[in-house]
Amino acid sequence: MPPRTRKTTSDDAEPTPEIIPVTDETAEAPENKAVPAPAETKIPDVAPLEPPAEPEPLPERDPLTTAQQLLPAELGDRIVDDATGEPPADPDSVFVPVMPHGSTLRCTVRLIEHVGLGAYRTPTTRLLVPIGAELKRGQAARVVARLRDQLSPTPASE
Asked: What strands lie across the sheet with 134-136, from one edge to the other?
């Protein structure tokens, strides 16, 4: 059966598109025809055997050792051991020397302080000295002196 065609008049006749037979030459290089090329997706043949490389770990920060980094200018109202919630019974054992005759001391307990901050003295707990922090002898002496003051009984007011 022949293909169906629509009868048209000469007024509304449209130009018939040119039919080009497909050959190897025209399929490879369409010169001025806008024919979209099929999109190629690149799929790897096999998955990689090695897991992706882990990111490099961040370098460790230097330990806090200066008074500006570690100790506030005014020590808090009450300094306690974080593990027990009480002031250390022996303030002299809180810090041990790093070297036998060195000037730095290492903290053996985590010390926190209970302070009142702001105009209304809002009760707050903050870290004073972490375990393993290395302090200079003068800084450690300030903390030990404050611990001793806490342990000494306060005279009754008259």
From this structure: 95-97, 104-107, 134-136
